[in-house]
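Study this fold:
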Amino acid sequence: MNITVREYNNQDLSSITAIWNEVVEEGVAFPQEESLTAQTGAEFFAQQSHCGVAEDTDTGNVLGLYILHPNNVGRCGHISNASYAVASEARGQHIGELLVRDSIAQAHRLGFRILQFNAVVKTNAGARHLYEKIGFKQLGVIPGGFRMKDGRYEDICPYYIEV
């Protein structure tokens, strides 16, 4: 398997919408509760500052994606935010790391100074370990900041890195 991260194109929309919806449906990492349709997915991904996909160049299969956009406006517009999704059958193959590292490079290229994650669920140990390995710093803990799919509330941990 040869994985390349590249900018998404319209041919990727079906794959990335399905991967995004899979993570939304799991209900343990993304705050969204509504799945994307073909139309809302096309609009959503087009609105991002950058959307990258991880593609297996041997098969042409898209295995993951990220979105990158401003975290705020105006005087805080230099801070970016990103979200990552890897297809369940492709997890554990370091695709997330490729996506995160590419998003840092793209954030820098786009003129952002910081990449900040507002709501990393505390129980998402794999993501937290990856972010810390790359050099992200945890800002604290927000008690009960995320409502899990089963209705429990879990702490969230904001992270940032200078890009």
